[in-house]
Amino acid sequence: MTDAKQLTVVLIDDGTLLRELLVRRWARHPRIREVRYAGLAAEGRAVCEQIRPDVAIIDIMLPDMNGVDLGRKLAETVPDTRRLALSVRCDPYLVHRLDQAGFHGYVNKDEGLRLLETAVVAVGDGRTFFSPKFEEVRRTQLESSESLMKFISDQEIEVMVRLARGLSPDEIAKDLSISRRTLDWHLSNLFRKTGQHNIRSLFQFAVTYGFM
After folding, report:
1. How far is Cα 193 from Cα 146, in angstroms, rounded to an integer?
2. DSSP assignment string, 37-98
3. What is the percent of the chain where pLDDT is above 70?
4. What is the CA radius of gyration of the chain?
5. Domains defined for the chain, CATH in brackets
6. Which of 127, 128, 137, 185 has the highest Cβ tally under 10 A?
7. What's this model's pTM, rounded to 2 decimal places?
8. How far, in Å, CA of 201 to CA of 52, rounded?
């Protein structure tokens, strides 16, 4: 038996099946001392700020907040807690956002509990762990000179996110606190950069590429 650090983990995920599986599986894990669970971002944040775990596993699609945004908040309030993203998605936009937010790891839900355990231990030990699916998307993004994330601005990303959510142009302008004229300028740039020609096709493009 080694003297390896025993890890405290918080799982923030609203899926009860995953929670039940991990309760049974991690009760006997030699490296995991304690696991707390939360189904909402607000609850998970409160638990993390209370016990300051070694690792917070964050589902990206939480009912009350995007998991990437929750990860950013935790980085401010509990900077010593390392953040591991969990999702069924692995699209270029998500990879970009997780990299920008400074997450320490990512596991796709389709890749199994064993890989998740490996990631938790690696991240808890101060390393990073990004699953093969994530690394493949990231590598493609870096190697492609035509990668969308290389030439789309942060403001244009915010427009795309709101399009994918189904907001109208007027609603997007109001939500971003910009004029309709400024929004039209962003849309014109997005049409040129994505090869789309109208709001409907740009909406479909935003959904397809995961701007949600």
Report:
1. 10
2. EESSHHHHHHHHHHH--SEEEEESB-SSSBHHHHHHHHHHH-TTSEEEEEES---HHHHHHH
3. 93
4. 19
5. 7-142 (3.40.50.2300), 152-207 (1.10.10.10)
6. 137
7. 0.76
8. 45
